[in-house]
Specification:
Shape: globular
Helix content: 25-40%
Radius of gyration: 20 Å
Strand content: 15-25%
Oligomer: single chain
Number of helices: 12
């Protein structure tokens, strides 16, 4: 780790990137900084995570504040992941299932961006929101159409859905940790998709609405995962692409990682103030492992 008080020379020696000095000089000026090609996000009382966005080779580095450790490989024992928009790119298959259901009910199809803004809050809210896009008076119709939507989506869940770039390699790097998927998808559907995509074995448990009384942004599922794993909030990170993932993590007392490659609204995500914002799964893994070594790339 690099101490904030003495970071300039070490940064120049290690990375030879002048923009680092600008980050150091502005270190105490705000919670979120954007300097040239560097994005950085401060955690009060700990320090700042510096996410390098240089085109040639992105890197993640850390500035510590005083003697505090912001994140380290020995500190983190468990990682809780949202599913859609974090591990899997499922938006097109969800849209297709919604549009098949709408057409079957005699309604017009919706554009991808319209459907996408309703993803992440459970299938009931998804379909109700999409039907309301046709007309608010049709919102209640969604409830009667929900069973056929679920059936169609289950049968076509991976027609277009793929694991995001870097996920498989990253999960291999993290498999010494306890990992759970905390999703607002039904458990059987999540199991189905993760198994077909070949990544189910990385996760110790799936937390889904059927075993909860409340879904995200309520933190109940996060508390259940931590209790099962025997870890506390200081040892756990919540990773998600929507404000509801971040809020759930914050209400559970966790540090949170907002991912910008997903299906959620990036403006709402940033406004929810996650501990970190990251642009690639690779950068997320480097943060989780507490690594900032030159050349530490996921192959």
């Amino acid at each position: 780790m690099v101490k904030a008080e003495t970071c300039s020379n070490q940064f120049v020696e290690l990375y030879a990137k002048p923009a680092f000095i600008e980050v150091c000089e502005k270190y105490y000026r705000g919670r979120f900084l954007q300097c040239n090609n560097i994005q950085s996000s401060m955690i009060e009382g700990y320090g700042v995570s510096v996410l390098l966005c240089f085109k040639d080779r992105p890197r993640t580095a850390f500035i510590e504040k005083g003697e505090e450790t912001m994140i380290g490989s020995n500190e983190i024992q468990a990682i809780l992941f949202d599913l859609d928009g974090v591990l899997i790119d499922s938006g097109v298959d969800i849209m297709n299932a919604v549009n098949w259901t709408l057409l079957d009910d005699g309604f017009p199809k919706l554009q991808y961006e319209t459907v996408k803004k309703h993803i992440g809050h459970g299938s009931e809210e998804l379909l109700a929101g999409c039907y309301a896009e046709i007309g608010e008076k049709y919102r209640e119709k969604a409830a009667t159409s929900l069973p056929k939507y679920k059936k169609y989506y289950f049968e076509h869940a991976i027609d277009e859905t793929k694991v995001y770039s870097g996920v498989l390699e990253g999960l291999k790097k993290l498999q010494h940790l306890k990992m759970a998927v905390v999703t607002n998808k039904t458990g059987s559907l999540a199991e189905h998709i993760l198994t077909l995509l070949g990544i189910r074995s990385f996760f110790d448990m799936i937390v889904s609405p059927e075993i909860l009384t409340k879904i995200k942004p309520d933190p109940e599922g996060l508390f259940l995962a931590m209790k099962t794993f025997g870890v506390d909030a200081s040892q756990t990170i919540m990773v998600g692409d929507t404000w509801s993932d971040v809020e759930a993590g914050q209400r559970a007392g966790l540090r949170t990682m907002g991912v910008t490659w997903g299906l959620g609204d990036p403006v709402a995500l940033a406004a929810s103030s996650p501990t970190w914002l990251v642009d690639t799964f690779e950068d997320a893994v480097l943060l989780m492992l507490g690594s900032h070594r030159e050349g530490d790339r996921l192959e």
